[in-house]
Amino acid sequence: MTQLYIGLMSGTSMDAADAALVDFSADIPKLIATHRTPLSSELRAALLALCAPGPNEIERMAQLDTQLGELFAVTALALLKKAGVKPGEVQAIGSHGQTVRHQPGGPYPFSLQIGNPALIAQLTGIATAADFRRADIAAGGQGAPLAPAFHNAVLRSAQQDRAVVNIGGMANITVLPKDTQQSVTGFDTGPGNVFLDAWAERHLGQRMDEDGLFAAGGKINEDLLSEFLQDNYFSLAPPKSTGREHFNSAWLDAALKNHGDVSAQDVQATLCELTAASITDAVKKYAPTTQELLVCGGGTHNTHLIQRLRARLHPCTVESTEKYGVSPGWMEAMAFAWLAKQTLEGKPGNLPSVTGAKRAVVLGTICPR
């Protein structure tokens, strides 16, 4: 008997709403179908504006909450039509929503995602679990990253020490020791694609550096790279998580202020190296016995970035999660389908060794259909 769940995801890059239909009836989850709805330039611009303080925030956020809820529902229904599956055959939807603020530190920690789950449930006719970060933060955690629990469930090996790196807008790492007595750990390593995409948009007029070709044609500026890596975030001990609140265009422009002689292409090469170096440093410091690094997320398609990771991590092998049957581009959407299953079954969805929470807790709230 099938156990079908849908995972909905929109990440830091804010390029599209991703939907994955997953069957959890076997030991290894099976990806049945996928669908992606690109975000319009207008919607993306409005979401990016909401990530920083500005006027009339509450009304703008409430309107975008509804707009995104509708978009997520349309994406889920298009997925079902593509798969030939009826809404009644799906147990639940797990919706990550769109993060617009993530501030897990300070006296009043919080993480805010929008994309009205009650509206998703009503429009699709499927119970929807959402707001997954709040319970972990309430238990003293960072509320992120959440994908490591899924990585642990499907990619851990008793034969070798592995690490998984998800390279989205930000990059996060999951350390999977082969010794089952050792805890799984993980954290955000820093920028993933966020600066690569922003710089490509600024200088090429396109949303991404396709295959990393722009970066590959440039030269790494070691002084600029050194300045990038002096940011305090990189030396913070985990648990830790980050987002656009910290690594944004203002951060980049401030770092570039004293490097006006560096060409746009050399900046792109250096930004690519920043992503590779921060991931590599995290592996070497917190997972030095790693034999295989498995890559997922949009960064998997950046050929130059993958080459730089291989060069920096040799002899550790660097492979796509596809090697073990998990599609790298749909890993996070699958993770939120899995989290919805955990929520419905009353099972914990966080890993305290990753987020820093005091205990394992059931994540998410459920909006009935």
Q: Could you explain how this protein is built, in words?
A:
The protein starts with a strand and ends with a strand. The chain has two domains: 4-143 and 332-367, ATPase, nucleotide binding domain (Nucleotidyltransferase, domain 5, 2-Layer Sandwich); 147-324, 2-Layer Sandwich (Nucleotidyltransferase, domain 5), CATH 3.30.420.40. Helix 12 (303-313) links the parallel strand 11 and strand 12. The protein is 40% helix and 20% strand. The protein contains 14 helices and 13 strands. The longest helix is centred in the N-terminal third of the chain and has 27 residues, at 57-83. Strands 3-2-1-4-7-13 form a six-stranded mixed beta sheet. Strands 10-9-8-11-12 form a five-stranded mixed beta sheet, with helices on both faces. The protein has a two-stranded antiparallel sheet with strand order 5-6. It is an alpha/beta fold and 369 residues long. Helix 1 (41-50) crosses helix 2, helix 6 runs antiparallel to helix 11 and helix 8 (222-229) crosses helix 11 (264-286).
